[in-house]
Amino acid sequence: MTGRRLRYKSLMVKIAPSILSADFAALADDVARVEAGGADLLHVDVMDGRFVPNLTIGPVVVEALRKRTRLPLDVHLMMVEPERYVADFVRAGADMVTVHVEACPHLQRNLAQIRDLGARAGAALNPATPPDTLAYVLDDLDLVLVMSVNPGFGGQSLIPSAFDKLLRVRALLGDRPVELAVDGGVKVEHVRRLVEHGATVLVAGSAIFGQADPASVIAAMRSAAP
Ligand code: DX5
Ligand code: ZN
Prior knowledge:
This protein has helices at residues 2-9, 27-36, 59-66, 86-92, 107-116, 161-173, 188-196, 206-209, 214-224, and strands spanning 14-17, 42-47, 73-78, 96-100, 120-125, 143-147, 179-183, 201-204. It is of the alpha/beta class. The site of zinc ion (ZN) has 6 residues, from strand 2. D-xylitol-5-phosphate binds next to strand 2, strand 8 and helix 8.
């Protein structure tokens, strides 16, 4: 028990820039800037035009990124039937793959599939989805992603109910060393409170790539974390 608790306490806060707000025509340059600026992960938003009303990127872009960065690739699948594409994303270089609870009637199977392929498995919760949906998959998780906006677009405002949800998910996880990510509208001013509520991964798109100097935002986020 003590060992597991120590492992959770030792999870460092990680900053995960979301490339959704990067310049897609200069993606390698933008990624290099956040990598040099101290990012811990690269968050890759995949949208299918069905689960969310937007289209973004597929495995070919993950494969291209894999060749240009050493950062772990954290792939967030906002899609229906993610099981059809998980292997393609892992083969392309995804280190972590997160599926949405709302899109997975057989969630445990989806999480096991990701781990069987050698990647770390995550489950994402939309703002209206209760934490209890994870109650029977706690040991199948490497990461929980609490959405603090309704997914589909960058640049939205953080929905304050995310703070309470982080606390509830962390309580549900107990002393398991599972990463707890928060995604949507995250800005420097939210960092302290998010970490105090249990977040260990801070995903930020517009707050980082929308600034002239993304590295300074990453540094400000890191120093804002308690
Ligand atoms: C939203 C995506 C987020 C998005 C965050 O659907 O899942 O990862 O890129 O962007 P910001 O930080 O601008 O809300
Ligand atoms: Zn995301």
